Amino acid sequence: MSRVFVNGGGRFDGEKIVHLDLKGAPFKVSYYSKLFPLLSKLGATGLLIEYEDMFPYSGSLLGNVPAYNAYSLMDIRTILTSAKACNLTVIPLIQTFGHMEFILKLKEFKDLREISKYPPVICPTHKNTLGLIMDMVDQIVRAHPDMDKLHIGSDEVWHLAECPRCKQFIHANNLTPEQLFLKHVTRVVKNINKRYPKLRVLMWDDHFRTMLVEDLNKSKIGSLVEPVIWKYAVNVEEDLHPQIWELYAKVFPKVWIASAFKGATGSKQYLSNATHYIENHKSWLNIVDNYKSVIKFEGICLTGWQRYDHFAVLCELLPVSLPTLGMCLRLLSGSNNYLIGNSPELYEILHCLEAPISAKCDYYGSDVLDIVVKFHFLMDSTKYALNTLRQDITVHNLQLKAIIQDINGFTGLLPELQNLNSSGRSKISAIRKYIDKFGDIAKESKDAELIQEVVSQREQLASSMDAFKKANIKAMLTLEKSNKEDLLIMKDPETLLKQRQKRNKENLVKISSSVTDQLLSISRQLADTTKRSADTLDTLVSSSDNVVGTQEELKVNSNVISQSGKLLAKYGRREFTDKILMFFAFTFFIACVFYIVQKRLF
After folding, report:
1. What single-letter DSSP state applies at residue 48?
2. What is the second-level CATH architecture of the domain 15-309?
3. Phi, psi of 12 (to 5 degrees)
4. Residue range 101-116, pLDDT digits in tens
5. Which residues span the membrane (predicted)?
């Protein structure tokens, strides 16, 4: 049983495993011989290595998976030898459900995706899924002859039971998506146990948190895996409430926990937030102290994510985060000094002249930290903030255009159109927020070029909103036309009866009301954008004395405001017109019903 004494310089007595994520900027093989002795001195007892496409998979099925710079089997043996020399156990991590884009992004594995457009999740009911996973497991086990634990991932399975095959499977077997998750995981683990009975299998816990204890016990998952309970917030207790620990105590004989030392505060971070990660570890120590009497804690995995997926940018590099990792490991080892940079022992290990966070250190790779700190101070400026806002505006504009394109080609049902509208309005709101922030910086700097850029951004937003509105009108007309055609097509009596039951007066009223509400919402947004454009023009007149042609631009934009006012008046009258159209549509509907009844009765 693990023992933790948080007060008075307590310690975590379980295994302390450092996670090495190789999905981006993987380390040279020569770096490991420098890194492992340092980790051992800091208090680590093992490594959780997530190879992904850096492992030298081979064979007819997996031969195309390794990256161009993947390790060789000789490299793997060198890494394992270096780890063993430092008394560090190695636990390989293989993704077997979610986060499998390193394989599913490849063309030859596209058919295995749960959703064809997105490669992170593998389909659990595809006939080739288990064979692929077991081929990976076999090759990993052969390359790690001394391993006694295997981590099978399985966190953040965003798309579960969404493909037609899985939907049919859970319907035929009367399963819930959660039960399908358990069925896949237990099938994988049972196959691993059959081939390698001495292996202990670990997996992430997040999908267990909301499951019923009956489902968990029925699947016998507690005898198959050791869950790794992960949470990277500064206050773990807020998210992992007592009910979760009571659930796990009933199902699992032993558990692991997972903290973070980098890669958990944002996908674009390049400098570690040491305060956040130290607080995360202190919170975990409190959790263990509170529940050590009801559940056994085997160890802790200190995760260091390199990037969030294969389509994301890099997070903090490991050499940059080593001081933070050192502080977290010393805290777990019982250091009395919780304050950042107040550990002489850490100074000595990292060869630091000052507090480690100041980058005045001399460990292998510390020059990278020094460069990144200088880069941070350089980029922490108005220019960097503006570039970030421009990037955010551009990304959201592209996403809004994609939504408009989907609405223009819309042929589905009203609820689907409403979902597209909700996404579009969300993007419009985000773009407006970013433009407002950009405008605040422009006003403060009194830079005429920046102010003019704000005007252009607002004009682009107004244009996108107009296109959004027109796309909605087109989609609603298409939807109404489809409804009318369905109504007028003569079918057998049974089909007609079903249509009359589905398309009654209330449905027509709802559709027409939805049209009106959407148009009014877009009109209000257009009015708000117009007002903001006018405000920005006032600022432009008062602050850009050096800009030539201000009067001409003001005149052009005044015409835009005038035309927008006319558009607002026009769409204000549209509500009345819609009510008249609704009345005629209802009258037409009654006439059709009367005509059909008359034909059938007389």
Report:
1. E
2. Alpha-Beta Barrel (3.20)
3. -105, 120
4. 999 999 999 999 999 9
5. 580-597
